[in-house]
Specification:
about 270 residues; alpha/beta; Rossmann fold; 7 helices; globular
């Protein structure tokens, strides 16, 4: 009996060790427990200003926090080439995977979606997928030049909805305009991406920070541009529409710090 118990204990401890080894180290984010416990949530849309170093890193930690929900996880990224994402996540050669991914057109653009920080996020997501912690990475950006901007918003939502699987939680990093569950008259008069997802099953969070800079293109100039501080003084989630600086969001996700610009991953060193 003692020998059987010792063997059982050894296997049990080995299992715990293997599980711990499989779990990445992630910094905590205030408010995530309440978010993942929200009844019926299927889609969590994070609306950021592309081109910062801080937000992709925070998004990684947000995905990491969702492991506790014990549901299948899908992660949406605002890129358009699903084939290249699949090659990247499926490659056994780390250097070749990065080289191939950064050779695609989107990583040569300067709108923040192909930044150094985004590349680091994708590498982290690739590792999560290889460990079986997330099910799939979804490239949901609309790449069809035939579509109007309004049609593009609907197509992005359709890509996320089509990729969804039973009982899955889909966590999405998008531009802050796409994350609106309605319209933003000062930006666009048509419904935006998050408005095409089931309202009761979708939580949209507007990213705020203490200002700083983001790498993007404005007025014909690409590079670091100043951000407006949004009173994001504490790192964490506030689930209240009143906390958002704009209508159409269920709350905010704050980095709690100033942002720094992250240049394109393909920029010459």
């Amino acid at each position: 009996m003692g020998m059987r118990y010792a063997r059982f204990l050894a296997f049990f401890c080995l299992g715990l060790y293997a599980h711990a080894e499989n779990q990445p180290s992630c910094a905590s984010i205030a408010g995530t427990s309440r978010l993942w416990a929200r009844p019926g949530v299927r889609f969590v849309i994070i609306g950021e200003m592309h081109g910062t170093a801080e937000m992709p890193a925070l998004f990684r930690d947000l995905v990491c926090s969702a492991f506790k929900a014990k549901r299948p996880l899908l992660v949406g990224v605002e890129l358009s080439d699903q084939h290249q994402i699949d090659l990247f996540t499926g490659s056994a050669d780390d250097e070749a995977a990065v080289r191939q991914l950064t050779s695609v057109k989107e990583f040569g653009q300067q709108d923040g979606r192909g930044s150094n920080a985004m590349l680091a996020l994708l590498q982290a997501l690739r590792e999560f997928k290889r460990k079986g912690l997330i099910s799939h990475i979804v490239a949901f950006a609309d790449s069809s030049p035939q579509n109007s901007p309004a049609q593009g918003e609907k197509r992005m939502a359709e890509a996320l909805a089509t990729a969804s699987i039973p009982n899955a939680l889909t966590i999405v990093l998008s531009g802050n305009v796409h994350a609106c569950k309605g319209t933003l008259p000062d930006v666009a008069s048509y419904p935006l991406m998050a408005s095409f997802l089931p309202p009761a099953e979708t939580v949209s969070l507007f990213v705020i920070d203490r200002g700083g800079e983001a790498w993007n293109c404005q007025d014909g100039t690409c590079g670091p541009h100043r951000l407006t501080p949004r009173k994001g003084t504490e790192r964490g989630i506030t689930l209240s529409p009143a906390a958002s600086p704009f209508p159409g969001y269920d709350g905010v996700l704050s980095t709690g710090i100033k942002s720094t610009a992250s240049p394109p991953a393909t920029a010459k060193k």
